[in-house]
Amino acid sequence: MKFTRRFLLSLSTVFLYGLWQKYHQKPLLSQDSPNNNNLTIQGIAPKPRKPNIIKVEPSEIVVFDQNIKPINFIDNTVGNQWLYKTPIIPGEGKKLVNLIQHKGQEILKTLKKLPQNEIITNSFPDFTDAIDLKQLGNNKPKISSLFYTVVFFDKPQLLRVCHGAIGLNVNANLWVNNQSVKHGELIRVNKGFYPIIIEAYHGERKQWLPWKMARLAPRFTVITETEIEDVYQWQLSQWEQTIDMAKVNDDRLLAAVKFDSKTIRGKDGFFQVGQSINGKWWFIDPQGKAFYHRGCTGLNAGGVGGRRANLPPVPKTTVKTWINYLKEWGFNAMGAWTTSEFFDQNMAFTEIIETYYEKPWLVTKFPDVWNPQWAENVDKKCKKLCSPLKNNKMLLGYFLDNERDFMEMVKNNETIIANAPTYRYDGPIKSDQFELPAEPKLNPKGIGLLQFCLSQKQDIPAAQKAWEFVFNRYSSLEKLSQAWQINISSQESIRESTLKEEILISDNYQEDNYQFIKQWVEQYYRICTEKIRKYDPNHLILGCRWGNTPGKAVLEVEKEWADVVSRNNYRSNFYELFDEFYQQVKCPILNGEISTWTDHYTLFRNPIEPPGGYEPETRQKIKADETMNRIFSHPGVLGYTKYRWHGRKDKLWNNKPLFNIINPLRQANYRAVSIASFWDQPPQKNHQPLQGQIFLTLLDSTITKQTLKPAKIEDKPSFKIIRNHLAVGLVCENDQWKKTVYGDGIKGEVINSNIEGDNYQLTIKIQTFPTLFSDTQAEANYQLNLVRHQTKLEGTFIGTYNQEKVTGRAIAYVHRPVTTVRY
Which residues contact 709 (CB under 8 A, 6 or more apart)? Predict the structure, then answer.
């Protein structure tokens, strides 16, 4: 199906043209205004060019080897006739290219025929054949290998090249008849024989991930001119939208937001937060106008922790320079760990109290909130930090701390099935795999807060409060023993169990621990909030900048005390994670920090990618742009904060802007208000049929069962049930779903579907297979009920995952309006 640019634009991410025309009187680029191709806006890349197609002629002299036959070209198929050599000195592939025409037979004698048992069938990620580089290299890393074959094309073809390098630190160089071609490039071949040379390398393992696979699946995929043009027109439309949004007067859009006065939190004349009459949350600036937060953390002289580094302030001239940079790049706020020399620069900012640094501690940086001395120390800190800011009009509010923990036994989406009253921890101490936490993991063994406090010395306030809590619920140790199903002969019994790493998990204990955490968090928030507002009653409380979404006990309390809740994020499923958070708290959310350069952006594949996937740099750009556009559209999100300012002398900046990092966020800042404003309107009727690649996330749709070893031999094992999200890709053309379901390590199909107005029902059946990041194999069926709102489809699902019942929220969106999965 051939798409016009106008049709592609009508289906693209944000449907903003009517909005732009309302607030921007000049002709838009999309209206074919004169000379628009010459228009440049700082930070926006030049107009996209159509992809180059490399013309490669067949070889006039073809060097064959008696050990292998030429491969007849089959679309998107890995050949099985190869000569190889391993290990080699890096660069031998290029030498072979230079010598093959002149000394071909002599050189080929140094190569061996690749055994068929070195070829894996149904390999991740595309379920093709693949050469096992790891096995060829005798399971040793840092090995280079050389491969040679000849492919025969029986007619001219337009092809997309796939190197097929699979794994971490696996890469390849490929030559087609002596012409070097990169992964993802387009070539045009004629009828004839084409020598193929590949030099592959598999490198060192990464610390956070087992060295699972290093494979090579080289192949060519037939592509059409129409597919190339459709994708190009979509890319062009995205670029034009950014240009148009950069020209929009954001102030007009923000001034047009109307608020529901009953939802407004905060003091008049200072930053507030409120919900529009259409249901979207916004900050409200001191003049009463909507404010969308685009911030950057850590404007300070260097070191760790801003003021904690105890460095001299940044010079005034440098402060001005950095502020001008931020404004030029479209940022309008400064985040946590910005130091006080920046507080008078007419730019919004936040302050962080860091309450966990105040002693006395129960363990390092985990305070005893029941100790009066801790409350006194928090009071002193708030007096020092908050009093000078009481009347500052540019202060948004205060974060209490950053990425902390309250010793919850189970986090969000986890439950424990207790078949015994205790279990003994004997596993590895886990850490976050993909983000480095700001502080050491507080509770790596998963002990509950109540057990932890009961195990402290009896003169410690936290222990006294814990025993008071217990005896208010159970009048004696005998009744406590019966409830928790363990023998508690004295108050020392709990401590003895803890020292033996016996962790309490009976059903009654879990409920008691849940209620005790609520009391603990209530005390924490009460003291922090009272102390802040004692010295500054004018500004907002912004929560704790969670590293991950905490459990229900914490959130139930936090939402009653905080004006805004906050969470950090380093993953590309930003929208889904924050929507999950929002559905639990129904409060406005501020992102405390992000980076779009983590492994989640470079290594984790989209549900649909062309054969062999994208190169990491291409994937990062696609995912980063889309992630930011989508989070701007969320009704509960007030904005984002880049981690971190790299203006000081460090390895990431060296006192010069890194525009490969800055410019994508600069472009996102151009789009932010337009997108947020567009989605702040009542639902509108969908006039266009659903069209394109649809990315769908099923929250809590997979189940992992972790065995908890019983403390006593005679007891049965217990289990921790962890529910995770599953992302799949679908293709819809003119409201008709294609049969195949795509995903990372996923095979599946659409079983049936139905559309009634804006309601979409479909049933999908999938199988999951091991990937770079998971060893899970499973079968699942899901029935989805989705409601469409332009490019979003949201609703619920029910189903089974490995025969376990699952249910949850479903979130889908149009990734791109072009349906091809080949390019």
Answer: 423, 424, 425, 426, 717
**Residue where one domain finishes, among candidates 455, 486, 516:** 516
Provide the CA 470 distance to its chain's centre, in angstroms. Answer: 40
DSSP string, 538-565: SSEE----BSS---HHHHHHHHHH-SSE
Look at residue 743 and tell me if it is in a domain.
Answer: yes
Nearest alpha-carbon partner for 363 in 168, 525, 498: 498
Q: Check: CB of residue 693 under 8 Å from CB of residue 816.
A: yes
Whether residue 105 is contained in a domain is answered as yes
List, run by run, the mean pLDDT of 10-residue segments along the chain (823 residues): 36 37 33 39 90 95 83 96 94 88 77 94 94 91 94 98 91 95 97 96 69 89 97 96 95 97 98 98 98 96 87 93 94 97 97 97 93 98 98 98 93 94 74 38 80 94 98 96 96 92 95 98 98 98 96 96 97 97 97 94 95 94 97 98 77 64 92 97 86 98 94 94 97 97 97 96 96 90 97 97 97 98 96
Which one of 516, 544, 577 terminates a domain? 516
Q: What are residue 349's DSSP bridge partners? A: 334, 395
CATH number at residue 774: 2.40.128
Domain residues for the domain of 196 are 57-216
Judge contact between 776 and 550, C-beta under 8 A.
no
Question: Does 374 fall in a domain?
Answer: no
The CA distance from 388 to 779, in Å, is 59
Q: What is the pTM of this model?
A: 0.92
Return the C-alpha torsion angle 325, 331, 336, 342, nearest 10.
50
Rg (CA), the chain: 30
Laid out side by side, the sheet with 157-162 consists of 53-56, 186-189, 157-162, 219-222
Residue 169 lies in a domain: yes
The total of structural domains in the chain comes to 3
